[in-house]
C-alpha cells in the first residue's frame, strides 16, 4: 500500500485554499505545524499569528495560502477524509465477499489511526486527534449550507457514499444505508472521544474497540452474520 499511495496525491477541493500548500516548502510547513499547534492548544486558541511564530514566518505569508483559520480547518479535515477514503478503497479492493468487504470498510473508517510514512509533513495520528476533537467546528457554522454548495464537504460526502454503497451490496433491501454509513463514520469519532474523556458511558476501551462495536452493530442492523446467513 505504501508504494501505491506514494504515487497518489490527496486531493482537497481547491476553493478551500488560495494557494495549494502542497506546492511549496512553506505551505507544507504551514500544514505540518498547524496540526501540531492545534493539537497542543486547541482550535479555539489557534491563530495565524501563533502559527507564524512557530514556523518563523510572517502572519501575512499564511494568509497567502488560507483566508482564515476556518478554511485551514476545512483543508485539514478534507485531507483527512480523503486519506481515509484511500484506506477504505485499498482495504476493500479485490475482496469478492460483500460482507467481508463491508467489515474491512468499517475497520478502515473506525480503527485507531497509525502514522503513514508516505506523507512526512503530516502526522496522521495527531491529525486524527484533531478530527475527533475539532471536526464538528468545520460544519457547525452559519455558512455550512453555502459552503456545502461550494463543494467544501465533497470528500466527506463521497466517503459516506462509498460506505453506503457497500452496505447496500450486503443487503439491498435495507432502507437506510446512507444513515447507517454516516452513523458509523460520525459515531466512530464519538466513541474514540468517549473512551478517552468519558469512559464511564462507553463500552469501548482496552478490551473493546470502536471497530468491534460498529461491526457488531451493523451485523445486527442488517441481520447478517460472519458466515453469510441472514
Characterize this entry briefly.
The chain is mainly α and 230 residues long.
Describe this structure as you would to a colleague.
It is built from 11 helices and no strands. The protein has a single domain (2-222), classed as Tetracycline Repressor, domain 2 (Orthogonal Bundle), CATH 1.10.357. Helix 2 packs across helix 7 (124-134) and helix 10 runs antiparallel to helix 11. The longest helix has 24 residues, at 69-92. With 230 residues, the protein is mostly helical.
Q: Which key phrases capture this entry?
A:
230 residues, Tetracycline Repressor, domain 2, globular, disordered N terminus, disordered C terminus
The average pLDDT value, as a whole number, equals 93
Structural class: mainly alpha
**Contiguous runs where pLDDT drops below 50 for at least 5 residues:** 1-7, 225-230
Task: Enumerate how many helices there are, as a single number.
Answer: 11
**Helix share, percent:** 55-70%
- The coarse silhouette is globular
Relevant CATH superfamily = Tetracycline Repressor, domain 2
Based on the coordinates given, report the CATH architecture.
Orthogonal Bundle
Kindly estimate the percentage of residues that lie in beta strands according to DSSP: under 5%
CATH topology: Tetracycline Repressor, domain 2
DSSP E strands, number? 0
**Biggest sheet details:** none
- Structural Rg: 19 Å
End-to-end Cα distance, whole Å, is 33 Å
> Under the CATH scheme, which class?
Mainly Alpha
**SSE order:** HHHHHHHHHHH
Can you tell me the number of structural domains?
1
Amino acid at each position: 500500500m505504501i508504494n501505491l499511495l506514494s504515487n497518489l496525491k490527496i486531493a482537497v477541493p481547491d476553493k478551500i485554499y488560495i494557494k495549494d500548500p502542497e506546492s511549496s516548502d512553506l505551505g507544507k510547513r504551514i500544514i505540518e505545524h498547524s496540526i501540531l499547534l492545534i493539537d497542543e492548544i486547541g482550535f479555539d486558541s489557534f491563530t495565524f499569528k501563533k502559527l507564524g511564530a512557530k514556523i518563523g514566518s510572517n502572519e501575512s505569508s499564511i494568509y497567502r495560502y488560507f483566508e482564515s483559520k476556518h478554511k485551514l480547518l476545512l483543508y485539514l479535515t478534507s485531507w483527512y477524509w480523503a486519506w481515509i477514503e484511500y484506506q477504505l478503497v485499498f482495504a476493500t479492493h479485490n475482496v469478492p465477499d460483500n460482507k467481508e468487504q463491508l467489515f474491512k470498510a468499517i475497520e478502515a473508517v473506525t480503527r485507531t489511526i497509525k502514522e503513514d510514512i508516505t506523507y512526512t509533513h503530516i502526522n496522521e495520528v495527531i491529525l486524527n486527534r484533531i478530527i475527533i476533537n475539532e471536526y464538528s467546528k468545520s460544519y457547525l457554522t452559519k455558512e455550512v449550507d453555502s459552503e456545502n454548495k461550494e463543494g467544501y464537504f465533497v470528500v466527506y460526502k463521497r466517503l459516506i457514499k462509498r460506505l453506503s454503497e457497500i452496505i447496500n451490496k450486503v443487503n439491498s433491501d435495507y432502507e437506510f444505508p446512507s444513515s447507517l454509513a454516516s452513523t458509523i463514520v460520525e459515531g466512530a469519532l464519538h466513541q474514540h472521544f468517549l473512551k478517552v474523556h468519558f469512559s464511564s458511558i462507553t463500552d469501548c476501551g482496552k478490551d473493546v474497540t470502536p471497530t468491534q462495536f460498529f461491526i457488531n452493530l451493523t451485523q445486527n442492523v442488517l441481520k447478517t452474520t460472519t458466515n453469510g446467513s441472514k
